[in-house]
Amino acid sequence: MSRPPRTGGGVDLVDRALAAGPPVMLYQPVVDLTASARPVVGYEALARWPGLGDVTTAQLFAEGDRGGRLAELDWTCRTAALRGGLESGIDTDTALFVNVEPVASRLRPPEESRQIWRTAAERLTIVLELTERKILTEPSALLAAVDEARDTGWWIAVDDVGVNPDSLAMLEFIRPDMVKLDLTFVQRTMDAEAARTLRGVSAYCERTGALMLAEGIETEEQLERALAIGASLGQGYLFGRPAGLHPGTAPLRARRVSRIDAAPTPYQLISERRGYRIARKAVLRQLTDEIEAQAATLNDPPVVLCAVQSASRFGADVARRYSSFAVRSPMVVVFGVGMPRRPAEGTHGADIAPDDPLRDEWVLVVLGTHGAVALAAQELVAESERSVDDDRRFRYVMTQDRELVVAAGMSLLNRFVRAETGED
């Protein structure tokens, strides 16, 4: 992204934008591609700052990010988008798609924004759009924003999917109700990587009932391509340019993707569905070595989550191995008592409480777009009774059932979000 033309620093640019008042909001139609009349079922809110000349909203937000003003800009745009929705007279049959920066959810919004959001939650159907890039750069903030939105009753969409195919495995944990494909899927000839991405998105939508939305449809040929790849919703100049907001012509027909109610620990979750076995540490080490080797060679980089009881068990050799995973994986998180936030280069760490039952478990979860496996083991004796390390014995379960693997991963990621956000 090129730097915007400006005088002074990026903070000056943000100050100029905010001093000029709320942005001008335009709304681009979202249509139902499965109906012959292509009825409008919603609108995406798009902010414009005419007082900044040729500076785009994307450039302004990039400057806000660099200057620590991203949350302020985000709340300004969110508030303007919802105010426009409330003033337009649209009802709950017409969905309003609103872009959100997850980092803003960590900060207390202005009182005016809180009041408008409360009113909008009662009177509008709101779809929060989270960009795919935030999956990789701010995973804990994004997951926290998703939880907050679902608790409020809003819908979730992930935008620009396909820009970075490495993030596809995270869809299972975010569980969006709608997946918005990047416009390149309909505007360019599909290559092997795009086809692999589309296969992953299609599989997710088939498993969960999520809707696929194709962006950037400008011609009949591109519409034909959108239908061919399985999109049921569409957006682009063929259906309307960003403009004013009017009630839709048909309700949005969508179903919510179910949330995962994760058990207290991965072992407790999986052992309720699968019988356990008993093995010594050496056997489990061989099994985890094999799973880690598989994770390192998958075509589609997987999410890797590992619980090692305590930070003292995450030695230098293990750290190097997990750092190598992080080079290509969308997210690598290691859990343990006393675990630092960055236990190895490129990885995340989550410190768990000494009384957390996870402290007695050895867990490895690998979730890719087209592969999934989880191993969870629970130590048989208390720490005070442990003697020779290699003689340690565990009850363990292993599964390749994708639903169980995702649920086991969520059990861990809930702890990651709490550790990162400081929530209890």
Automatic annotation (TrEMBL):
| Top-level taxonomic group | Bacteria
Q: Which GO terms describe its molecular function?
A: cyclic-guanylate-specific phosphodiesterase activity
Database matches in Pfam families? DICT, EAL
Q: Which residues cross the membrane?
A: none
Residues of the EAL domain: 7-256
Protein name, per record: EAL domain, c-di-GMP-specific phosphodiesterase class I (Or its enzymatically inactive variant)
Q: Tell me which species this is from.
A: Jatrophihabitans endophyticus
